[in-house]
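Dear all,

This email documents one entry for the complex benchmark we are building for the journal club exercise. For each entry we list the sequence lines for every component of the assembly. Then comes the predicted three-dimensional structure of the complex as a token string, followed by one or two observations. Please use this as the template for your own entries, and keep the labels exactly as they appear.
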Amino acid sequence: MNELEEKTEDVSMDAVEDGQKEEQKAEGDSGLGMGVLFFLVAFVVCFLSCWLLFPKVLYSEKSQPFNFNHRLHVEETGDCESCHSFRDDGSFAGIPKISKCLECHDEQQGDTKDEAFFIKNYASKDKEVPWFIYSKQPDCVFFSHAAHVKAAGMDCKTCHGDIGDSTKCKPYEENRITGYSRDIWGKSIWGIKKHSWDRMKMDDCAQCHEKETGEKGSCFQCHK
Amino acid sequence: MTKEQNKRKKHVFGMVIDLDKCTGCGSCMVACMSENNVPFREDESDKKRSITWMRVYKLTNGKSFPDTEICYLPRPCMHCGGHGDHGHSPCVSVCPVNATRYGYDTGIVSQIYTRCFGCRYCMAACPYHARYFNWWDPKWPGEMEKYLSPNVSPRMRGVVEKCSFCYQRYQAARDKALYEGRDEIEENEYQTACTEACPAGAITFGDLNNPDHMVYKMVQPDPHHTRKPLNPKAFRLLERLETNPKVYYISEREWVRKAGDNYIKGEWEKLNKNHGKSDE
Amino acid sequence: MKVDRRSFLGLGLGAVAGVTVSPLPWKLIDDVSIWTQNWPWTPVPPDGEVTYDNTVCTLCPGHCGISVRKINGRPVKIEGRKGYPINDGGVCLHGLSSLQYLYDPARVKQPLMKKGKVWEKISWKDAITLVTGKLAELRKKQSPDRLACITDTDKGTISGLFERFLKAFGSNNFYTISSMDKTWEKTFKMMHHSGSSPGFDLKNSDFILSFGCGFIEGWGSPVHNFKINSAWKENKAKFVQIEPRLSHTAAKADMWIPVKPGTDADLALGMCCEIISKDLYDTSYISGFTKGFNDFSNMVKKNYTPEKVSKTTGVPASKIKELALKFAKAKTPVAIAGKGRGYKAGSMKEFTAVHALNCLAGNINKKGGVWTMPFMEYGNWPAINMDSVASAGVSKPVIGESGSVAALFEKINASKKSPVDLLFVYQSNPCFTMHDVKAVEKAVEKIPFIVSFSSVMDETAEKADIILPSHMFLERYEDVPGAFGLVEEVTGLCVPVAGPVFNTKNPGDSILMIAKALKGSVASSFPWENYHACLEKITGDIWDKLSGDGYLRKDANLPYLRPDADFSFAAQNTESVKMEGSEGSFPLILVPVDNMRLFSGVFASSPFAVKTVSDTIIKKRDILVELNPVTAKKIGLSHGDYAMIATPKGTAKVKVHIFEGIMPGVVGMDEGLGHTAENIFIKDKGVNVNELVGPVIDTGSGLDAAWGIRAKLSKV
């Protein structure tokens, strides 16, 4: 945060200096010159702060209860579904319950600080870990994992990206206005999407649906 | 769902209510309220503002004592197919923000609360009074909020809501089928809450497009005439508005069937001679 | 260089331009629109794994099997239990709203003690100590018979524990609220001399004659009845409803016979007369198995010819004859009695007359007929240890001659000092459900100390001195034996599927705690560690099946022999139950009306149930009474008008609902309204009809069998 703030300040200082140079050139045409200068100064200050500060203000950062190493678990279990499984009724369980964790972690596995923390605070107490869910959709959304993973044979990665390959949890960023996870809009504040998993808004669903099925689908397909 | 799967036969979910069996007990109304997180208020006696997705009306034959007869008529959303059954339901065609749409894959008219901005055009357009407006934010007193179901979003003030044929149950049934590698759901896998709860077994629900389903057998929808019932004891409400409802009623009593639409004097008798079809 | 206004303009323009080409406005538009769709105060119910738990609903005596849908263990919805012998998946609106009862703000959240007029919180330990202190005092004074207990039923182990406690303590004063079950049992005792209850094989019956039964208003086991009603439509059985108004039941009947209120017995006897005169009865049964038939035959021929009956009932003689003929000619006819829901006792004259029809048809203990069902027997209660105090106490007679709650209250009101010093009230709300509420309240207030075991703050609990709150049925274990009128034995098991939400206890445990704290012979009569242990022990060999399946269905131990039929009582031609008031000052007749959507029993209706009630019954806070347009015109009333209704018992302000389906001269008023206990969804809505109707003791049974009262309606 501080680093960034400094950077912005530096930039704006530069901008001011630039402005001064311009101002010297335009001597004589003083009124307009000052106007242009002010314009430029305000432009640059607002432009940069909106780009750089706004995301910081918009999102509150929360860290996960402890660090979770996805890569390690994928190496051990071999796939995503061992932990992120379907229930017998076809619904998707999402983040596993502590009981699932305890299938392996009934005693400490390995000697990392996070593992010890997990055993001490959750596993031994049989308490659910209050994970923040990066890809949490709002209440009005019904997302059928069965339709995508089972019926259409999609890869988890298509929507969730490389999370299975991560070794630590990135901070969870929550939009202060909407309460949504930042992953819904995507990391890029401009909403620019390079990969299919960069954004999880309705348009992204619709886009893929149109491509794959020939139509966007009815509202009720995914809303409740 | 791939393009291939998408081409499969569409569902047309519909409901048949046997008015001779319906006892007017109100189970369907409460089953619906508790399934769909319908709110309630201190005073619900102003029925225009009382949200009841499923509402049981009381019809009388208008005769005086002791020849009076009563019939109870449960009214969910009719999920109209609109003129020609093309999906231009009265409500859908007036919604300015696409908050209510016709589901061409299910025949179910959706209502997306987060999309709705409360202009209430749809309420004015609906000839069945099946739509309700949230004049107030819902409140669940004490700890009652704890019984809310996650399968249906609680609504906020300023939006319209209505019966969805318990769409969440279709979603759940489809999830199960897909998980088990089936492409189709069974008839009994998707039933609305009112159908299941009805103690009299007066409500039947299923796919009007599937000749194996009970609803199809009961009303024999005419595929060439926008699914008009061929069963002479079956009728739809306000049939001649051509809204093409997917809710059918069955009664042995003629006055009940007549009450399903408005007729000028002598018209009913004339129509009846022609087995429910008009002269044109 | 000078700084002028234009320069500042530049500053503003620059800021606008800078912001515009940044993501801020566009992102904010999106976020704000999302924000308006997701108000933070709109609840987001947590999602999770779906599971189902089965239990039995005990809100009403129907005892349906229910299935509770849970999300991550949190109950979210009640559904009917498929395959359950009584309701097979169907469920009524009250059962469906049980979760509202679970979280009802009116629930008693912990033990309470009244200090003056204010409720104070008290710990369970202190509460039990206080109650046992009072009880020990009674025993010390050698007057254990001054303890009384009122419950809704005498069936099942929880009621069994209460009854047992009273015995072991030394009191006979155990009362259950009188309902039609009691009248039927007395009828069977009188006519078949057997300790049995009726089983109506209505499903297999082809002609059903109902004397005012609210067959689809909640009579017997409601959901079971709804299913039977639908089966009748399919197999073309004929259902005839005899009733002064077009109720839901009458509306569904194949034939509705409007009859003057209170003359059902006459109509039944008129039919008997016709059947006997035309020799249409089952001669093999009547000649082989009956007693007193000749007297009965002579009596009806003398007093109840269809012509005479026609005058009293208002039913044309030809109609009576036609009905009698149809009934007698039917293959498997059944006649049933019990007004409305049957939550109140009926007159013996009426019930014996109705059952005489069954006997004449010879359709007793036959398929599609009436069965004399032996009382369900299970549970091996060990002998009670009676000390000298207890033995002396139980040798005294029960207070109130007939042993009914009405008789008890009458006795209390008639005595200067209440003969009862301490009253237990469990699962009953006499201050709301009994006739002449004011007199009941007066009697209750005379009792020095009342212990309520209610789970909600109802009208009677409000008058108690201490409340030991019970789990509601979703939170507790309890055995649920049978349901009224069934021809099979179904014992259900209530299991905790939620909570406990508040600091409450199973009433069985409460009574065990009290017994143990009393020590001595009382404590030793209750050897079980807790209620669960008691339940397991008492149900004995059926426990495994009961706890495994959630119910036990036994093909009832049906008595295949046809029992003797004794017509002597019916032949006595006792007085009908008359209504209070004179025709001169009260020209109309007020009849309480049962409505499936309004609960008229122990509980107040749930918010969902109240929501379904028509605005022709309740409008804002006003109750509407049904009035035939002819009657209304005479008084000068029209729909929606305010009116004053007066009966010998009281007056109330009501609104008028003009209804073609009610007999002229009769006023219909719904039961289940006019609650005064704290509950924002039902309190002060309408009038409690029990305030306007007084008890009338039936000479045959000694029970209160009032079915209505004379009334006057005047414009306000």
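Observations: The mean pLDDT of chain C is 94. Chain C touches chain A at residues 1-4, 6-19, 21-24, 26-28, 30-32, 34-35, 37-38, 40, 44-45, 49-50 (CB under 8 Å).
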